[in-house]
Amino acid sequence: MKQIKAYIHSHRAADVIEAIKSTKAWEILDGDPHHYHLSATPSQGTLPPIDDAEQHFSVNLGLAVVNEVRLELHCDDDCVDEIVKAIRRSARTGQRTADLVEETALQGRSVPDQRAMDACQGWSGVRS
């Protein structure tokens, strides 16, 4: 199992997600859903801006940044190449560097902690 992280320009996020969803890795095979967790988180980063209007100065970070989206996806090892190609192809902005993609091997299995799930049962989200 691998984790893929991609940092992309925010205006390319919808196209990149559609490209990921159109891969064979995302399809349901033999009636068994390959349900991969895809997370999209808005972020600020240092990808090269497309133009001056895209870049702004972050007082909190103390540097010039652009609005990005961090995509995270877990998938089987044999699906990595196809998904990375889909991300790179659809994240293009006409610049030399339009994205940052990395993959990491995951050790073990990710399973929910039953005690934590039990503790959340009935929690309304309001603290007294």
Can you give a write-up of this model?
This protein is α+β, with helices and mostly antiparallel strands and 128 residues long. Helices cover 21% and strands 31% of the residues. The chain has helices spanning 13-21, 80-90, 114-120, and strands at residues 2-9, 38-45, 55-58, 63-75, 99-105. Strands 1, 2, 3, 4 and 5 form a 5-stranded antiparallel sheet that branches. Helix 1 runs antiparallel to helix 2. The model is unreliable at 123-128 (pLDDT under 50).
**Which stretches of 5+ consecutive residues score pLDDT under 50?**
123-128
Structural class: alpha+beta
Q: Over the alpha carbons, how many angstroms does the gyration radius reach?
A: 18 Å
Helix content: 10-25%
Continuous helix count: 3
C-alpha end-to-end distance:
41 Å
Whole-number mean pLDDT: 80
| Strand composition percent | 25-35%
E-strand count: 5
What order do the helices and strands follow?
EHEEEHEH
Task: Give the biggest beta sheet.
Answer: 5 strands, antiparallel
Q: Judging from the principal axes of the Cα atoms, what is the shape? A: globular
